[in-house]
Amino acid sequence: MYQKTEAIVLKTVDFSETSTVLTMFSRDFGKIRALAKGGRRLKGPFESALDLMSHVSISYIPKRGEALDLLTESKLIRRFRLNRENFGGMYAGFYLIELLNEMTVEQEPTPDLFHLAVETLSQFIDAKPIMPALMRFEWRALEITGNFPSLDFCVFCGEKIGNSSPRIEFGHWDGGVICPKCRFGTRQISVITPALRNAICQLVTPNQNAENDETQEAAAIDNSQMGPMRALLNRYVSHLVGKRPAMFNYFSKMK
């Protein structure tokens, strides 16, 4: 039975002289891996719509077990192609699809995450402020996938942690903030400030008074918070996926 959906191309691997194996994150079926027979041909059934980061409409035949699905058609909706003046957007886009690949599992639909990814890629292409948009995507992706850290209550005892202290300890392995009583013996700790914690919450929880997402991001992240938030995300995401994402090396080149 044919399945139809929209998808973002996350990874391509040459399978033969003419065929390609693709990993895609779909709106309706989650992550899928499919064989595109003839996918490497310039003229074929896929209309050159198999590039990385491409937003496509696909038809495929699901296979049972560990067999690859069979991609039968792919039509381009939008190709997220960056120009030479927007290398930061390109690096951010490659990181976004790397993160999608690492944080999702096959056959688990997450339509909210799919729409968030398409929206964020569009911001990269349109040369909007890149790093605030990227960090907004990361925190919301963590929330959607159930991996958002505890920011208000100690992950061990549940005690509410207020803003009375200028230093709040955050456990990467433990998944959130830790009160002073539970701190002893824990490892992989970062120290965050109440201001940084508030900025994270503002990114994830929309401000109804903000005119749009750009206003929301600008209000939530001032220059003093950009570096600490990026450093916190780098460590937390690395612990979550079990390795340091390859695109972290290019973040210093983003404007």
Identify the notable features of this structure and list them briefly.
about 260 residues; alpha+beta; OB fold (Dihydrolipoamide Acetyltransferase, E2P); de novo design (two linked rop proteins); 2 domains; 5-stranded mixed barrel; 6 helices; 8 strands; about 35% helix; elongated
Structure description:
With 255 residues, the protein is an alpha+beta fold. It folds into 2 domains: 1-79, Beta Barrel (OB fold (Dihydrolipoamide Acetyltransferase, E2P)), CATH 2.40.50.140; 82-255, Recombination protein O, C-terminal domain (de novo design (two linked rop proteins), Up-down Bundle). The chain is 33% helix and 21% strand. It is built from 6 helices and 8 strands; from the N terminus they run E-E-E-E-E-H-H-H-E-E-E-H-H-H. Strands 1-2-3-5-4 form a 5-stranded mixed beta barrel. Strand 2 and strand 3 form a beta hairpin. It is elongated, with a radius of gyration of 20 Å. The model has no long low-confidence stretch (mean pLDDT 87).
